Amino acid sequence: MRDYILLEVRRTLRDKGFVIFGIGMPVLMYVLFTHIGAASGGQDDWRVGVMVSMAAYGALGAALSSGNGVAEDKALGWLRQLRITPLSPTKAVVGRGITSSVTVLPAIAAVLLVGAVVNGVRLAAWQWVALVVLLWLGTAPFTLLGLGNGYRLSSQTTGLVNTGCTLGLALLGGLWFPSVAFPRLLRELSGWTPAHRFADLGWSVTEGHLPGPTTVLVLLAWLAAFGSYAVYAYRRAAREV
């Protein structure tokens, strides 16, 4: 399975579209938001908060895009070929999940690096480490959602749906604009979205404390929901290819 994971990681990182839009776009948006759309007060807090938001946005998009490769493999017959190799279906799915968990790290690291070097964000050493670890672990629900879309949908549709999910979750979750500026009903709804709770993992760390139990429970609920969807989609795909 290690060779399979290394193959998928290399293939993903060689994809110019992934590098440009998965890593470059969150960095560009972070620079723009903190130099053009900067808040009038609390400049340091603004740069820290947006840094976490854009790192979460980049990781979210990278995790969801893992399904695009699955859909392409399905269309090319690669999934069928994998079934005649010693690699079991379970290992194939786990390998895909591990691949995605690796490829989200460049997006997180790139935004945090720009925050520290360009915007002068200063945090304690444990906060930097906790930020990377929690944002990395928190991508699991989105990876499963992306894989589910990849197994369930066609290659053309998967890309569109995953892009729509990325933009919709980021917008509704308050990653682009603070949810405190939303209308009351939308603000309350935002608090239950996976993207908002995912980013809250990082916001909590930058405020000097660990995420609250509500954030963890909401993310676990979304993990179970998207995991069930991924399993259902994989079983459907297994019967069709």
Key words describing this protein structure:
79% helix; mainly alpha; 241 residues; 13 helices
Question: Can you put this structure into words, describing what you see?
Answer:
By secondary structure, this protein is an all-alpha fold. The model has no long low-confidence stretch (mean pLDDT 84). The protein starts with a helix and ends with a helix. The protein contains 13 helices and no strands. Helix 3 packs antiparallel against helix 10 (155-172), helix 4 runs antiparallel to helix 10 and helix 8 (125-137) runs antiparallel to helix 12 (194-206).
Question: Based on CA inertia axes, which overall geometry fits?
Answer: globular
Provide a count of the helices: 13
Biggest beta sheet attributes: none
Alpha-beta content class: mainly alpha
What is the alpha-carbon Rg in Å?
18 Å
Q: How many beta-strand runs? A: 0
> Helix amount, in percent?
over 70%
The sequence of SSEs as H and E is HHHHHHHHHHHHH
Strand content: under 5%
Mean pLDDT: 84
Query: Unreliable segments (pLDDT under 50, ≥5 consecutive)?
Result: none
What gap, in angstroms, lies between the N and C termini?
22 Å
Task: Present the secondary structure layout.
Blueprint: H1 2-13, H2 16-35, H3 43-64, H4 66-76, H5 78-83, H6 89-103, H7 105-117, H8 125-137, H9 140-152, H10 155-172, H11 184-190, H12 194-206, H13 213-240
